[in-house]
Design a protein that fits this description.
Layout (H helix, E strand, L loop, with lengths): L1 H26 L2 E16 L19 E10 L5 E6 L14 H14 L2 E7 L11 E7 L10 H31 L2 H4 L3
Antiparallel strand pairs: 1-2, 1-4, 2-3, 4-5
């Protein structure tokens, strides 16, 4: 019974924390070191995973089918990695990506050179929902070990943690201030 009371009391906070972590993990940029092996354009029915795809699309028909650019690559371990290449436009996440055609051309050039590249992307790969991470930029690197740290992600998470700590401290101070000024007969609990 003690565990049920704990889950009932604090479970919503844990669930909210997990949702915020999932949103940040999906939205913040990640970087992969890969070799691009090819590109393609596929007519795709977005279907059940539509919340993970860029909204609408200029080339979508009435049934939701549209042409999607894909960048096929391989990791250092030999595992394949597929990225979609869609404009985010003014939507979420706010990458303001309008150059998917240019990025596709860069990927085609890199496919012919067989050089290591750093692909900056956001999103997840899920085979069940058929969703792919969206490539944001491609740049050449010296090798798979030359990727470096993802400083933007680290600094963003650190700033958000500091803001959450400050908000928590402010909430506690306001609560204590109100409790000090509340009449005794209201603050007593049975």
């Amino acid at each position: 019974m003690r565990y049920a009371k704990f889950i009932f009391r604090y479970g919503w906070r844990l669930l909210l924390l997990l949702l915020v972590i999932a949103l940040l993990d999906y939205t913040l940029p990640a970087k992969d070191a890969v070799k691009i092996v090819g590109t393609e354009v596929v007519r795709t029915d977005v279907g059940s995973g539509s919340i993970f795809w860029a909204g609408g699309g200029a080339n979508a028909d009435a049934s939701g089918n549209r042409d999607v650019r894909f960048i096929n690559s391989v990791r250092d371990s030999g595992a394949p990695r597929v990225y979609r290449n869609e404009d985010t436009g003014w939507g979420w996440p706010p990458y303001l990506k309008f150059d998917s055609g240019d990025l596709q051309a860069d990927a085609q050039i890199m496919a012919n050179t067989e050089k290591w590249v750093k692909v900056t992307h956001y999103g997840w790969r899920n085979t069940v929902l058929s969703i792919y991470p969206n490539a944001v930029s491609i740049s050449e690197i010296e090798g798979p070990d030359a990727l470096g740290y993802n400083w933007f992600r680290i600094v963003s998470l650190a700033c958000l943690a500091v803001l959450a700590l400050l908000a928590w401290r402010l909430w506690n101070r306001i609560r204590d201030w109100i409790a000090d000024r509340m009449p005794r007969w209201i603050s007593r609990r049975p």
